[in-house]
Amino acid sequence: MSIQVGDTIPSVTLKHLTANGMQDVTTDELFKGKKVVLFSVPGAFTPTCSAKHLPGFVQNAGALKAKGVDTIVCLAVNDPFVMRAWGDKGNVGDSVVMLPDGNATFTSALGLTMDASGHGLGTRGKRFALVAEDGKVTHVAVEEPGKFEVSSAEAILATL
User: What is the dihedral of CA 104, 129, 66, 26, to 10 degrees?
Assistant: First the structure.
């Protein structure tokens, strides 16, 4: 079962590559006391993710923050080094937290994994976006396979 409106964000610890090296980051730290938009992509450097999904959130970061969003998180089942390189390539700066879920721990806890083995990618996360306030989910939008409609920055802005 996937996460639903009213659910609490699962508590997991992930590895995050920062300017200070590899750090543990917990979902509790990321979500507690904040309004967070989290969007998930099937993979860093993949076509739709790189051309539309991530750039949309970077370009709309100011508009999202103006609507009360404290933190924007990009989640992908990729390793910390890939997520950092992708963020650098996408000129993310401080606008989006590039959160790797290398073992799909968080994505699995959300119930939003997909089997991309047919494309040589193994277990990945579905394309989705959610909004949480103080760790409680207030909005979830999961894309149908191959679609990019309900999880874009513009779609999330319209829900806030």
Answer: -20
